[in-house]
Amino acid sequence: MGVDIYGNNENHEDGNYFRANWWGWRPILAVCDYVIEANDLHLSTDCWDSNEGGGLTSQEDCTKLATCIDTFLDQIDEEHETVYANFGFWKYTNIDNKTPPIDVMNKLNQQYPIGTLLYRPIALDDDIGNGEEDTVHPDHLVDVPHIQEFSLFLKHCGGFAIW
């Protein structure tokens, strides 16, 4: 399950199709929302969180978004190849599929509100952690190369629809 994004430019390999699962798409969408607001792009991401055909209709808008995404990615430290988006649920970094207790997640969500983008796991301090584990991260994450792939798609798609 995820998103299939079809570009209007069927003749360009990089702008024809982009795919992401929901766990990866939500952070990409959060990056888009962030750069749209930060750069006052006046673009709407309505319906980008569903398979209802939302998207952008012009290459000009797609190019603007891609340029802002690239600038955003340039600011990320090279040693960090992952973008995490907080949607309220956290995992311990060093233990597969183990989640912190709800009181720890609530404290983390107060410190890092829903929608916060992070670039590295968070070290738990004594006020938040329970002493069992030392680092956590939001459960929605995407590798930087996948975001770069979406930016490349945007540069050549001629507009797109999310299905």
Molecular structure report:
By secondary structure, the chain is an alpha+beta fold. The protein has two domains: about 100 residues, no CATH class; about 60 residues, no CATH class. The chain starts with a strand and ends with a strand.
With strands numbered from the N-terminus, the spatial order across the biggest sheet is 4-3-6-5
What Rg is obtained from the alpha carbons, in whole angstroms?
Answer: 17 Å
SSE order, as H and E?
Answer: EHEHHEHEEEHE
Q: What is the number of E strands?
A: 7
Counting helices, strands and paired strands, the structural category is alpha+beta
What's the overall geometry?
A: elongated
Number of domains: 2
The proportion of residues in beta strands is 15-25%
Share of residues in helices: 25-40%
Main sheet characteristics: 4 strands, antiparallel
**Unreliable stretches covering 5 or more consecutive residues:** none
End-to-end separation:
11 Å
What's the mean pLDDT score?
Answer: 93
Task: Figure out the total of helices.
Answer: 5
Give the topology.
Blueprint: E1 2-7, H1 13-16, E2 17-21, H2 22-38, H3 59-74, E3 82-92, H4 102-111, E4 117-118, E5 122-123, E6 135-143, H5 144-156, E7 160-162
Antiparallel strand pairs: 1-2, 1-7, 3-4, 3-6, 5-6
Could you give a short description of this structure?
By secondary structure, the protein is of the alpha+beta class. It contains 5 helices and 7 strands; from the N terminus they run E-H-E-H-H-E-H-E-E-E-H-E.
